[in-house]
Automatic annotation (TrEMBL):
Transmembrane segments: 31-49
Protein location: Cell inner membrane
A Pfam entry, by short name: T2SSM
Protein name as catalogued: Type II secretion system protein M
Recorded topology in the membrane: Single-pass membrane protein
Main location: membrane
Length: 166
């Protein structure tokens, strides 16, 4: 029997196993493993430290450029025409209707002055220009007192209107 106390043999730790394995490697193999560790360290530093800020910078530049283009487009838009504060007179209304309806490619079929100073008219033409023409009259502060509209399947509008200038 031995004089030393009996101690259970502890399993060697993972670090101790790695250290023993490292010492068994030849010097050339140790150099190769060190080189591989440096390479992996550089790649990890690139992926974890350098690449995310670069990607964020590229996204920020792209967003900035997009916002700059939108701002340039907004600045290039024409200013909204301001409606005149003065209503059109009853005497000038027939000329305005004739001029604007022909510009909108609408056929003015009939235009009559009523005793009350209103204008009763019938016209026909494509629906889209007709709607634009009504919007233009509204900007000129012409009041549409009544409107009767028939639209064909080919988007042709036939309308009877009663308009007032003041």
């Amino acid at each position: 029997m031995s004089d030393a106390p009996a101690t259970p043999t502890a399993a060697p730790s993972a670090v101790a196993l790695l250290r023993r394995r490292w010492q068994t490697l030849a010097a050339r193999e140790q150099t190769a493993v060190r080189g591989l560790a440096v390479f992996i360290g550089v790649i990890a530093a690139y992926l974890l430290l350098w690449q995310p800020p670069q990607l964020a910078l590229a996204k920020a530049e792209q967003a900035f450029n997009q916002q700059s283009r939108l701002q340039q487009q907004l600045q290039a838009l024409p200013a909204q025409p301001r409606a005149s504060t003065q209503a059109i007179s009853g005497e000038a209304l027939p000329g305005l209707i004739t001029r604007t309806s022909s510009q909108a490619q609408l056929n003015l079929e009939r235009m009559d002055n009523t005793p009350s100073g209103h204008i009763d008219l019938s016209l026909e033409g494509p629906l889209a220009p007709f709607i634009g023409w009504l919007a233009e009259l509204e900007q000129q502060q012409v009041k549409v007192l009544s409107l009767s509209l028939e639209v064909s399947p080919q988007a042709r509008a036939k309308a009877q209107l009663l308009l007032s200038g003041s």
